[in-house]
Design goal:
By secondary structure, the chain is mainly alpha-helical. 57% of the residues lie in helices and 5% in strands.
Amino acid sequence: MKRDRLARIFPLVIIFLVVFFLMPRNSKFPYDYRKGREWKYETLFAQFDFPIYKTEEQMREERNSSSGSVVPYYRYSEEASAKSISSIERLPLGNLRSVVVSQVRSIYNKGVIEDRSRRDELPESEVIYVQRDKRAVKYPSTEVYSLSDARNKLLSDLSAMALGVNVDSLLRKNGVYDLIVPNLVYDEQATELVHEESGGGVSPTSGYVTAGQLIVSEGEIVTAEIEQMLDSYKKEFEANVGYLGPPVLILLGNLVIAAALVVLLYFVVWFGCPEIFHDSRYPYLLLLYLLFSCLTLLVLKANEQLLYAVPFTLSALMMQTFLPMRKVVPLYVAMLSPLLLFSHDGAVLFVMFFVAGLVVLYVFKYFQQGWRQFIAAAITFGVLALLYLGFRGADLVAGNVWSALLSLFVGSMLTVAGYPLTYLFERLFNLVSDSRLIELSDTSSPLIRELEQKAPGTFQHSLQVMNMADFVARAVGVNPELVRVGALYHDIGKMNNPLCFVENEFIVPKDDEEHKYHTGLSPLQSAHDIIRHVSDGVEIARKNRLPKAVVDFIVTHHGTTVVSFFYDKFLKEGGDPSQKSEFTYPGVKPHTKPQIILMLCDSIEAASRTLRANTPQAYSDFVERIVAGKMAEGQFDDADITISELNIVKETLKQYLAQLNHERVVYPRTKMNNK
């Protein structure tokens, strides 16, 4: 019990620690505002001193106005030079080819930049820096050629060398001028970086606000100037949380929030689906929560706008694969809870992804096969886009519309792309989905074919139990596919010793009593051999990597019942009643409705072959006797089935037996005419 509790709590501690360390360490600005809109809060005074930061546009304009003092940086492009010279070397220039190549190489060694007319936005300076071989060397701007100067230089030098030759015509005809390109490329990033580090003559601030100064009054329209002050206040507010109180209190607050998230998750599981505490769905769910919580917190730190691209709806789909929808919804709420706490538009994002999650859970039931998944993704995107535009129209969210819609589209497509991960987790955690159940119910699978070959009677018995259990499961409202698979595999352990079981005795001639399996064995030995098929079945199932849910059917289908035939024989032979435990299955009592259904169907199918009467009353008495016997043995003590559900099971079994053993019309015999 203590170990079980530790297994529940320890993963939650891990989640708590991860969430705590990834939580934003800055405070969330508590106001939402837009330029041109009314300030809907109380009058705001500055709680601390802060500078008024210039906007990016203001900084750009000031930098441009002072661009005369900027020293431009250029990168020397060996590739451009080599490509140009290589092209010229292949031209039909006759005896002048080597001379032309030599002159072009000489020009490139000095450097060629764009003509001034084609670089109006570049800073003009008397000196430039040329980055070559990881070094930046300062040159007078007059020492390098512009593109037009380089072409004129080539023409003048060649004309002086080749007297009597129309050099200009030759160069134009062969496209030499066009092959001369700039090999000094302007490096805007390096220029801006050096300029800023050197001061650039541009201050990032335009004023200062002292503590207690009025920022905006209640009901006042937010102008551009007020918006700039609010933006600056917000920046300092979120970056310097120490202004709002001691750091210890902030740390304590983060601890409380992280603990609250973990406690919320635990109680959602506790009240919504406590059964998963006992199987691998619990660690699977915690892993999902951890992954999406980490993703949310990391995206918040990088760029909050990218939250639109996070495929939160994928988490709903990945939970629905192994849980019913009514249990997925509260878990999905817990999965989205970090958005509410840490995002500025948390309420909007929560509503958007919650509604979209419900939609995707519904539509994926109809569009989960192949390319149809993209239809579901398109519907999800449509819902998200509609909700976003609605909130945008209501002025509840800001930012670039097209960027947000693109992010929502990417997130919707990621839902489709990520859905196959379900199958990876299915194998990793040994879970079972409906698609896996359908795969396992295939009677042509190697394991079932082996059962059919080694124990044909058991195979037929399993098929009958499967059909009966399917009928009952649908009436009670449990997963019929799960019950079918459990019925198909519950007796696979009989493959190891098929002749031990009466349904396979037809393999031996009926009158050959000497070679019947139990001939000459003591009742105790016979019981041991029969009981062993449960442990053999578990071993075979695990060897073939069957899901735990299927293994549980093997373990529980006999529960802790007694091999009554051989126990009664044992007593008749004078055996000690205190040895009853030797004739008892050392299994586990069924604890779920599917396991109870299988136990009853297994017993009834086997015992129904002994029925003499073929009447509704006989079927009713028979089913009541079997169920009462199981209850008397305490087989349902740990089960989650109610009396009303058990009554439905009994009535359905009676109906099934009546349908299975219905009477047929006796056809009269006819004489065959010999012709």
